[in-house]
Amino acid sequence: MNVNEKSNVVKPILVPQRLDMRNTISGLPETVLHHVISFLTTSNKDQVRFLSRKWRRIAAQSQKKLSLTGRRLDEQELSRILVDDFHSVDFLILKRFSGMKTLKLVNFKLKTAELNYCRSLKNDL
To answer: What is the pLDDT of residues 15-44, one digit of tens each?
Structure first.
């Protein structure tokens, strides 16, 4: 509090609100966040996905390639990956995924799935 000498009126001193330093980066524009995430290694990008839904979406949007080779997935896991991260090719294009234009299911068995980025189909869209 500050006391005015002439009128003895107590005026509150305005203090800026305390910044929450733990999550200030999430407040940046998405274009900046995409730029930041572009410098991360693949393993760090995978870890960023656990911060929040926003970061999971940004990490998915920054992917140029979806590679599941060698991983065993059941139908539920595959469905979650495709629905949560890659809604559709149109979604990828609308979100400016410049490197990825097409997802193609190359081989699918009950417990194994392989998805490859198809460069040959890139110009067909």
So the answer is: 555 555 566 777 788 888 888 888 888 778
Residue 66 in contact with residue 86, Cβ under 8 Å? Answer: yes
Cβ neighbours for 74, distance < 8 A, ≥ 6 positions apart: 110, 111
| Same domain? 101 vs 50 | no
Instruction: Specify whether 46 is located in the same domain as 82.
Output: no
Can you tell me the distance from the alpha carbon of 73 to that of 61, in angstroms, rounded to the nearest whole number? 22
* Domains: count for the chain: 2
Does this model's pTM top 0.70? My answer is no
